[in-house]
Records
---
Amino acid sequence: MKGYIKSIALAALIAMGVLFFSVRAVAPSLPRVVGRPVIEETHRFSWPDAERFVLENHDGTIRIWPHAAQEIAATANVRIYMVRRGEDGTAATYAETLFGATADAREVRVVTEPAERPDLIEVRVDYDVFVPRGTDIEVMSANGNVHVASGCGRVNIEGRNADIFVRKPQGMVTAQTTNGRIDVVDAPDGARLQTVNGNIYAHMLGGAVSADTSNGVIVAHLLDPRVNSAELNSMNGGITLVMDERCSANIDARTMHGGVRSDFPVDTSSGVRRHRHLRGKIGEGHTALSLQTLNGNIWLARGRR
């Protein structure tokens, strides 16, 4: 009974912390869009091919696709709103300063709103970007989801209020957001994934994967024996790790308030087998697995591609 009461108290404390964070830290950064935009326009850009494309954007969705052309091309759909009517001239003047860009053979860098945004103006810029296959991608997005389609190189995304989706990259993936989920498919060279309020989904073909969330579930698929390690941590959420039959692992799985289940036979002769803690070896023990959650179950499941 005491343990049950402690769990309720801990959950309530965490919920209060999340509420405080959302109200004091997140809410002031959210856009105050009111009514129809006073300015709505489309800008098109192109640059020569470069090794890396970097984009900084405050408000708006970002979608990036590889294409066959040897250039980087972008379309920016701009909407500018006035929180209070009567200052359309200010909006028009600011619209002329929305984009800053530098380009050379190594990097194309685009900065949205390089100047400080005037009071009483809200801006949303949605990007569609096309890059040559294998181009490395770096994105900073404050408020807006980020989609990276199949065929890009290394991917590095930092978000705040953003869902992040990465499909079949050719290199390492690093993705971090505060309020949003992360979904990575067929990463060949590892991934580092972190969010505070959101779920994490990762399909791995190789390298090492680390995934951390405070309030959300983690579902990871190890699709190939080339995955070296998986370190998965959640505060309030379950962890499911689906492992291909060809894989083997050394596993250490712990939960404070939940249970640990494995569909694979686990050799615990030199380890631990308890309801909330499982440490042992599966097969040859190639992949190092560390799975930890405070409030949630852990399931090591069989899977096939």
---
Amino acid sequence: MQILLIAGIGFAIVAVLFALQNNVPVTVSVFAWSFSGSLALVLLLALGLGALIAGLVTSPAMIGSQWTGKRLKRQVASLEEQNRDLQRRLAELDAQLESLLAAQALAPGALIDTTKS
């Protein structure tokens, strides 16, 4: 975070130095619209407009990836809950099997053939 702040301050200093050195008046004409201002102002305005357009173009992709990430996190949480439920059920079935085997061991004449399915 501090590096980003230092980079922003450095960029601002460079922009101010650029504006002080390039104060030549220029005229920008687009179709019927005309704008006059200093060279630095026109270039910084173009830079800002380009950054705004780039942000608007990339925002749908970023929003989509955030939605996908949230959906995948919910899916992982659901699968983890299912896994816990299945492990709990497996532990219950193992306990039942052990109790059945223990009951079989106590009844000497009752043999259960576990090889048949």
---
Amino acid sequence: MRRAALALAALLAAVPAQAWVASASDPEVRAGARVFLEQCRLCHGLRYVRLAELADLGLDEAALREAAGPEGLQGPVAPVMDAEAARGMFGLVPPDLSLIVKAREGGRDYVRELLLAYEQAPDGSLSNRLFPGIAMPDVLGVAGADPRARARAEEQARQVAAFLAWAADPRAEERVRLGYYVEAYLLVLTVLLYLVKRRVWSRLET
């Protein structure tokens, strides 16, 4: 039985520690979805996220239907501004943010820091120390904000980053939950196979 215990310990040690997974029930994810629709959706879309999935987060379904296109709630989260208007205003089409958390080193931390990296020069011009030359304006009003407004901007940046982490993989929580069942099954199977091995070899020895 000692060998079985060692085998189980080795199997558990081989399972990596679970990293933070964005959950649809997380209040930060839900709040971030609202901030995204109010502040970010003017220019950015989420082509791999359906509006119906935002309804599942608890957002007002009637408001989502008003924002929906011809496909209704089954359509993607599209930006309000069309590509030509965005190109004329910013010189380029703002990127889709469905997978931005997976595409950038640092993930959601990168998104949060980018939103908070705006600074105002003495002449009044804005810059972003994390992404010099970025065309995106200071949507959260970070530059020159007083401490209270800065704290609110930090909260919103954290919420948006959490939401975009969820948007990059809305089914991550389900897979993690399923993984626990698979691990439990493998542990039980390991014990049963060890007991069968003991019984078979005990007969051979006698």
